[in-house]
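tool_log.txt
---
The assistant was asked to compare two proteins side by side. It first ran the structure predictor on the initial sequence, then on the second. Raw inputs and outputs are pasted verbatim so the downstream comparison step can read them without reformatting.
(1)
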Amino acid sequence: MRTAFVSLRLVNFRYLWYSQIASFTGMQMQQVARGLLAYQLTGSYAAVGVVMMAWGIPQTLFSLVGGAVADRVNRRNIILIVQFGTGGLSLLTAFLILIGVISIPILFVMGLFQGTLFAFNMPARQAYLAELVPQSELMNAIALNNMAMNATRIVGPALAGIVIAVWDISAAYFLQSFLYLFVIYFMFRLPPSTGHLRGNARRSVVAEIGEGLSYVRNSPTLRLLIMMAFIPTILGMPYMTLLPGFAVDELGQGAGSYGFMFTVTGVGAIVGSLAIASLTGYPRKPLLQIGAGLGWGASLLGLGLLARQFGYPGALVALCALGLFSTTYQTLNNTMVMAATDEAYYGRVMSIYMLTFSVFPLVAGPMGVVADHLSATTTFVLLGAGILVFVVGVFTLNSRYALSDERALAPEGAAGADAAG
C-alpha cells in the first residue's frame, strides 16, 4: 500500500486531484437530487431515464469534437470554461426549483447543456492528467483520480440526502454551485497545458477527428479495449437511473436511504481504486480486468436477486460489490487505453473512449421502460447476466490477449496487434 499514493507527491497532480474531488462531489449531489426530483415530478422510471438521456445526447454528438479540441487547445483552459458553465447551470436550476417553475422539460434542457459541457471536459481532463505524471505512474494516477471520484460517491450522496432532508432539493443545487468555486481555484494554480503543441501541423477539426478514428481503427488493441469499455458500460451503468424508484417503490425507503445506497457503492469503489493504485507494477492487467468484469456482472445480477430475497440489506451488499468490481474494471480499461495510445492522440482517443459513457444515458430511457413493465430487480438480473456472457465471450475469443502482460499494450509495438488480433 506504500505505492498506492505515490503520484500525490507531484504538486500539480495534487491540485488536479483536489479539483476532481470538488467537481465530482457536486456532480454526485446533483445525480441524487436530479433523479429524486424527476421521480417526484412524475412517479415514473421512464421519466428519470429521459432526463438522463438529455445528458447523454450531446455527449454522443460532441465527444469526438471535444477530443479534437483537446489535442489542439490549452486543456487547462477547456476545463476552466466547463467548470464555470457547469456551476452556472447548477445555480440557475436551484433558482428555478426555488420559485416553483421546474419541470421535466426544463430538466431535459439543462441536461442537454450539461452534457455538452461534459463532452469537452472529460477528454481534456484525461489528456491533461497524462501530461502531469510520468508514464510509469499513469495507472497509479488514474486509479487515484478514480478513487477521488468514488470517494465523492460516499460524500456527495450522503451530503445531498442530508441537505434535501433538512432543507429541500434546491439547497443541494445551491451547494453544488458553491463547490465549483473550489474547482476553479485549484485549476488556476495549475500550469497551462502543452500537449496541444505536440504532434503534426494542425488541420481542420473534422480532419483531426477522422485521423483519430483511423488511429483507433488501425490498432487491434485499442479496438478491443474500447469494445470492452462499451458493452459493460451500456449494460452495467443504467442501474443508477433505476435506483430512485427502486429505493422508494420496491424497497420502501426514503430519500436518506436512497442517498446511502450511493454511499455504499462508493465504499466498494474506493476499495477497488486503492487496490488498483497499489498494483501499478502488476503485469497481468488484461487477465485482472477479465476477473473484474466477471465480478461486475455477478454483483449486478446479485443486486436483483439479493434485493428480492433480503430486501434493503441485500441490496446494500450487492451495491458495495458492484462499486468495487465496476471501478476496478473501468480503471484498468482506462489505464490500458492510455498505455496503448501515442501522446499526440490522447485527446481524440479519450473522446472515443468517453463515447461509451455518453451512450449509456441514451439507454437509460429504454431501460426505464423495461423496469416499468418488469420491475427494477428483474432488469438488474438481466443486465448482470448480459455482462457475464460478454466477458466470457471476450476471454474465449481473445484468450491470447487476456493472458498477455502489459507489454502487449505498446502503441506501436507488434505485440499489441498480435495479442489482440
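(2)
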Amino acid sequence: MERKIAYDILCAVLIDGQYASLAMKKMLSSIQPEKRGFVTELVNGVLRHLYLLEYQFKDYLKSHTKRQYSILLSMAFYERFFLEKENYTANEYVKLLNDKKARAFVNAILRKDTEFKLPDLSNDEGRAIYYSLPLWLFKLLKAQYSPAMLNFILEDLFNVPKLFYRINHKKANPFDLNHLNIEMINGDSFIAPDNLLNKKEFTEGLYYVQDLNSAKIIHELELKDDDVFLDLCAAPGSKMFNALDILNEENVFGNDINNTRLELIRKKGQQLGYKNLNLYNIAAEKFPETVIKKATKILIDAPCSGLGVMKRKPDIRYRLKDSDLDKLISLQETILRHVSAHMQKGAILVYSTCTLNTKENDRQIKRLLESDGSLKLIAEKLYLEDANADRFYSAKLIKIR
C-alpha cells in the first residue's frame, strides 16, 4: 500500500509535472498517519538521489523503456541501498505492475546481484549524476562558487532539513509551549522531537511553521513600533506574520499576485489572531506607488529559482529549466526598479531570495546600484550557517535621495 502511494506520487511529479509537496499532501491523506513517514522518506529519497539511482540500472534500460519502470526501479534501489533493505522487497515492486512483460523486465533487473556503483567523480558529468543535478545546473553553480564553497553547497543537498516552528509572540511565549518539549534555537524559532502540526496549540495559532533562516530575514529590517511595513511578495505569509509581532495591523501591508495563496495568508492570519489584514492582489511590478511611498520598511521576498530549498523540495531541480532563470532575473529587476523609483527618502528595502544563484542575488543588487544612484547598500548576507535549514540571501538598502 505504502509503496503504491509513493509510486503514484513520484509518477505525478516526474511524469505529470506536479509539485511533490502538493501531490504528497493529497495522496497521503488516504493512509494512516503512522505509515506516512515511510512514504515521505521513499518519495523524498528517490527525488534527492534520482540520477544516482538511475545510474545503477541505466545499462539495462532500452530507448523505449517507459518512465514508470525507471521510477519503480529507482524506488527499489533506494530501498535496497539507502534504507538497507534486502532483495525480498523486489516482489513488492513487481506486484505494482499489471503487464506480465513489464513484471518480467523489472524483476530481472531487481534480481541481479549488483553492488552500488559510483560515477566518475573527476568530471562534471559524473559529479552531476552523483549529486543528482541537471548538468547545466551543476555547471552554473561551479562557475559561481569557489571549489570549497561548491563542495559545501553540494554536500548540503544530502542533509535532511528539519521542521522548524516560529512562536506567534502576540499569543504565546516559550514557557507556554514547554509541555511540548520544544527546544528554542533563538528568541523566535524552535524545533521539537515530535511533529506539532496536529496539536491544539498549532490550531489555536500559538506558533506556525517557518524555516529557521527564513525567520531571520525580518530582523534585517529592524522594525520599530511606528514603521509602515510593505511585504510585496508575501506568500506564504510567514514574513508578514513576523512583522505583525512588532507592528499593528493597520501599518502592515501584504501583496501577492496569486489570489489563491493570498486567501491562504488571510486564513492563516485569522488562525494567528489577525482579523483585518491589509492584503493586495496585484503584480509586484505594478504595485500602487502611493502605498510604496507610505512605507518606511519594504521587503521584496522575490520570486526566484528556489535553489536554496532544494534539499527540502528536491523536485525543484527536475522542474527548473535554464531558460527559466532569465525570466526570473528580468522580473526581479523590474520589481526592484519599480519599488526604488517610488520609495520615500530614508526608507529601508530588504531584497531576499531562497536561491543560491548569484545572478539572482548579489549580482542582481550590483546591477541595481550601478543603474540607480538613489540607493545605498547597507549589508548583504548568504544564510548558510545551519545544515538543517534552507538557504537564503538578503540585501539591505536605504533610499538616500
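---
observation on (2): Residues 32 and 102 are 30 Å apart (CA to CA). Residues 322-342 form the longest helix (21 residues).
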